[in-house]
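Retro notes (design track)

What went well: tokenization of the new backbones is finally stable.
What didn't: we kept losing track of which sequence belonged to which structure.
Fix going forward: every design gets posted as structure first, then sequence, in one message. First example under the new rule, 71 residues:
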């Protein structure tokens, strides 16, 4: 039952994620002045990607520790 809840939560967050604007104020100001929308979107995607990787790694390590403690 516990694995079902975890799997459901994971699928929920993957499929129902919100669109994020992940720029700092200085990045936004410098990119907005150029007027290049594709570059702004690329920087947003890069920031979100760099932000997500540590959370995924820590979550994976935490899940591995949880499984070891459960056995």
């Amino acid at each position: 039952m516990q694995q079902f809840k975890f799997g459901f939560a994971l699928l929920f967050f993957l499929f129902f994620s919100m669109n994020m604007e992940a720029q700092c104020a200085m990045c936004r100001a410098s990119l907005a002045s150029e007027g290049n929308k594709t570059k702004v979107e690329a920087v947003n995607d890069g920031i979100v990607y760099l932000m997500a990787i540590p959370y995924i790694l820590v979550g994976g390590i935490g899940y591995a520790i949880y499984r070891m403690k459960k056995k």
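Added context from the reviewer: The chain has three helices and no strands.
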